[in-house]
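Handout, section B. The chain below has 301 residues.
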Amino acid sequence: MKPTLLILAAGMGSRYGSLKQMDGIGPNKEAILDYSVFDAIRGGFGKVVFVIRHSFAEEFKKMFNTERFGGKIEVDFAYQELDYLPEGFEVPAGREKPWGTNHAVQMAAEVIDTPFAVINADDFYGAEAFATMGAYLAALDGAVGKYCMVGYLLKNTLSDFGSVSRGVCSVGADGNLTDMVERTHIEKDGDSALYKDDNGELKPIDVNTIVSMNMFGFTPDYFTESIDIFKDFLKERGTELKSEFFIPLVVNQLTNSGKATLKVLSSDAAWFGVTYQEDRPMVVAKLEALIAAGKYPAKLW
């Protein structure tokens, strides 16, 4: 059975200023996620699921559908909304911020029954990353708790125009993840980088650190495991107006408890993305260079 690609596309693009997941930046108005789907098809994926919001669902589904992708991959949708919580929990008064990336992942539980990869809609991961991920997931053959991620060097993932959020990883001698810390503020400092710690203080971080760009691979048991962790999270932090339930939180808990292992896959793929509107010209230029080099056709579909 072919693996599934889960694309997190429910973000509202507050720092970008628009719905960046739908922004046509390719020569024929292709969005970044078009390139991800194209690479996923080449990497052996058989289905793509988009996590979106009802507020822009009609526009999104009109643009990204089976017909757009030439019928080469099955397409489905799931929805992330603030009030989509386990029974017995409510959204606290005044909360507007979404519940985070792992909440978005959980929304797809009803439409995914194969090993699956998770990516952000606005990040370009590269063909090699999808080939590596697809091969790993396709070989799992019913395994449980055998997760993976594609790691990138921090220096290749920073923006010139503001801070970024990254999962900072520690990797053991066996290639498995030992710890991952979500740093919500990492900024360039010349050829170096700084991160903001839990006390709000800026501290140096090695630019050669391996970070997660939210390209994870999971087996379907991840859905069951993470909902239980989410309930505990809501009991502890559910009344906070800006708390977020990130994927690294769940991954750490499952790997530390021995319920799962997470292999950090190496890839020669080059990452880039559009965190800020000012990043857009750089992304356009990089796509043009890849097309000129024959890595992608000028017209994807």
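Note. The two ends are 25 Å apart (CA to CA). Compare this with the example in section A.
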